[in-house]
């Protein structure tokens, strides 16, 4: 019999493939998310330190190539920090959902997200079907 989850806005839904997360698998995913979170925090700190480094302002030459390279590197640093902060927010949300007991259920349809999808992308909020629909409507 397929496990059922409750969609907050509607009736119980059958779980995706009838597969739910075991406590052991959930604990492993939590450890994975926490490790990735720690790595992201370190990465963000390093990127922000690089960005705050004012040595790029020191006059070295009137070389346009140097100025262009410096500008590119600063924009790259900003982009990497932004992406890391976005991923950090997704991980924090996944950890919050674990605490609330809602982790692993699709935020759109309420069905369980396939455990294999969570193994590959532990911060996933949508089942594969809803993710595809969301990407098509962008």
Walk me through the structure.
This protein has 138 residues and is mainly alpha-helical. It contains four helices and two strands. The protein has helices spanning 23-52, 64-100, 115-120, 128-136; strands at residues 4-6, 12-14. It has a two-stranded antiparallel sheet. Strand 1 and strand 2 form a beta hairpin. The chain starts with a strand and ends with a helix.
Order of neighbouring strands in the sheet with most strands? 1-2
β-strand amount: under 5%
**Cα Rg:** 21 Å
Shape: elongated
Largest sheet: 2 strands, antiparallel
Q: Would you identify the regions where 5 or more consecutive residues have pLDDT less than 50?
A: 1-18
Provide the residue-averaged pLDDT.
83
Task: List the helices and strands in order.
Answer: EEHHHH
> For the terminal residues, how far apart are their CA atoms?
36 Å
Q: Number of DSSP helices?
A: 4
Helical fraction equals 55-70%
Structural class: mainly alpha
Number of strands: 2
Question: Concise description?
Answer:
The protein is mainly alpha-helical and 138 residues long. The protein contains four helices and two strands.
Secondary structure elements and their pairing?
Layout: E1 4-6, E2 12-14, H1 23-52, H2 64-100, H3 115-120, H4 128-136
Helix pairs in contact: 1-2
For this entry, give a set of tags.
elongated, disordered N terminus, single chain, two-stranded antiparallel ribbon
